[in-house]
Amino acid sequence: MSTSFQNIKGTFDILPDAYTDGGTRIASSAEWHAVEETIRDVMHRHNLEEIRTPIFEPTELVARGIGQMTDIVSKEMFAFERSGTNYVLRPEITAPVMRSFLQHHLEQRGGVQKLFYIGPCFRAEQPQKGRYRQFHQFGVEVIGADDARADAETIAIMMSVYRAFGVDNTTLRINTLGMPEARAKFVNALREYLEPYEDDLSETSRRRLAKNPLRILDTKLDYEQEILADAPVLTEFVEDESREHYVQVKTYLDELDIDYDEDPLLVRGLDYYTRTAFELESPDLGAQSALAGGGRYDLLAEEIGSKQPVPSIGFAAGMERLFLAIEAAGNDLPEPEGADLFFASLGEEAEHWVFQTVHRLRGEGLHVAHDLKGRSLKSQMKEANRQNATYAIIIGGNELEAGAAQIKHMASGEQVEVPFDRIVDYVRDETANVEE
């Protein structure tokens, strides 16, 4: 079977089985689910609560939140208009989360709001390995905390996620961006320094020089890095309060035994960041080494309409990059759960008995599968194995007459006869013995 329609460039389908697309392994839906559940487990252990926001938001929210001069807003948004209102498919989730926090007055819940999310985002950028036009992010937003401990804890949560998957070969880079006034002075100094080199810069950097010189600091071009070697350094312009906050963040990271590299050239691509900024990289991923990044965004709430600032910090990470990092580290993905029971039926009478029994057992909380194609016993056992079933339960005419099923433990191959009314007890007793 085939169709002339294909998934849109820069997107991919998540299927029941893993497959390869353009040389990149696309994990199965069960593997995605297992990874997401591991992330949720880490988040819950750190006392975070999940938040979900719509995948499209008003254009103005995203533009004001992220910044008009950023690459995302200027050329990477999927935008559309409906009934006179402009919308975009969300390119990131921090601004929508802050919008939701303000709209629903979550500050009235009391204390610091520690939130996490997992969901799709959209950017019209050039697709490449591990980077797509529809991609999936997970992240954390700690809203209402000005203390440097919140910065260190947010970084610790980020590190814990990757450690949970055995991704240990990473580098954490940190910096302080200061507040907007200090950063504006630095931008002016940086522009003045770079203007004599304008003809030597790449086309992308020349465009950034006019619009947002900070982004030039992200360059991967060797000759531009040489130009930047003697450029002004942002930390020289940072005000004393931000500098002291940065010292405290490093102190708390030291207390948690989290290694880090201080990088005075580290900036973030979104305008809402203030003070602390950080990125996590893995050299195992080659040139495209970024795994996650984040920072403090104390003024974002005011940018989108709040009457007062709301101190906050967070990070965002790409799910696709996480899968690549797990693979590069040589680690296995979390094992998807298979069916508890697979019923193989032989003959029409057995099919009716199995059909009723399967639905009854599902009502008792068991994960149960069965054949719907009337295949041979050999084919049904192959299907039980494909579904990673723990037990295969064989029902035919002889079993119906005896009132007892043949139960095969798929891992050991051991097969026993068990009365129909003891099937559930047998399976649960055996499972309990294994867990002990």
UniProtKB/TrEMBL annotation:
One GO CC annotation: cytoplasm
UniProt-listed InterPro entries: aa-tRNA-synth_II, aa-tRNA-synth_II/BPL/LPL, Anticodon-bd, Anticodon-bd_dom_sf, His-tRNA-ligase, HisRS-like_core, HisRS/HisZ, HisRS_anticodon
Subcellular compartments: Cytoplasm
Family in the record: Belongs to the class-II aminoacyl-tRNA synthetase family.
Record-linked NCBIfam families: hisS
UniProt xrefs under PANTHER family: HISTIDINE--TRNA LIGASE, MITOCHONDRIAL-RELATED (PTHR43707:SF1), HISTIDYL-TRNA SYNTHETASE (PTHR43707)
Protein name: Histidine--tRNA ligase
Natural source organism: Longibacter salinarum
